[in-house]
């Protein structure tokens, strides 16, 4: 395998794009809006080499993502906490038994998002 792409279907497309780009600093690599099919592909940087990708696709009905989470490892969770504070609800930082520190939140579609600093 050479990469990973996860697709989330949401009626909150614009809000989700804003969440992932403004607060988590993901980059829009591709977008489309044709014949009722619209969405974006987000990346961790400006390149498509060796990355994980997140596809957000518009649907008109909410999905249930119980038990599913997206987890992003970062070098410094404090910067993300600062961007979120006062704008988006989150919990943490919480130190986990294995030494990593986690921030917990939900995206506009109810997907649990974890941002962590430390080991895999």
Summarize the structure.
With 120 residues, the protein is of the alpha/beta class. The protein is built from two helices and eight strands; from the N terminus they run E-H-E-E-E-E-H-E-E-E.
Record the SSE blueprint.
Elements: E1 4-10, H1 13-23, E2 27-34, E3 37-43, E4 52-58, E5 69-73, H2 77-84, E6 91-95, E7 101-106, E8 112-117
Parallel strand pairs: 1-4, 5-8
Antiparallel strand pairs: 2-3, 3-4, 6-7, 7-8
Overall description:
- By secondary structure, the chain is α/β, with parallel strands linked by helices.
- It has one domain (4-60, 68-117): 2,3-Dihydroxybiphenyl 1,2-Dioxygenase, domain 1, CATH 3.10.180.
- The chain contains two helices and eight strands.
- Strand 2 and strand 3 form a beta hairpin.
């Amino acid at each position: 395998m050479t990469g990973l792409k996860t697709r989330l279907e949401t009626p909150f497309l614009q809000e989700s794009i804003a969440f992932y780009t403004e607060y988590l600093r993901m980059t829009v690599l591709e977008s489309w809006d044709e014949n009722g099919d619209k969405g974006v592909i987000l990346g961790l940087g400006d390149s498509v080499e060796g990355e994980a990708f997140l596809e957000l696709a518009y649907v008109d009905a909410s999905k249930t993502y119980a038990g599913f989470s997206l987890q992003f490892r970062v070098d410094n969770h404090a910067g993300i906490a600062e961007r979120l504070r006062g704008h988006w609800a989150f919990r943490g930082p919480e130190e986990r038994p294995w030494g990593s520190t986690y921030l917990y939140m939900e995206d506009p579609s109810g997907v649990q998002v974890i941002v962590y600093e430390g080991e895999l």
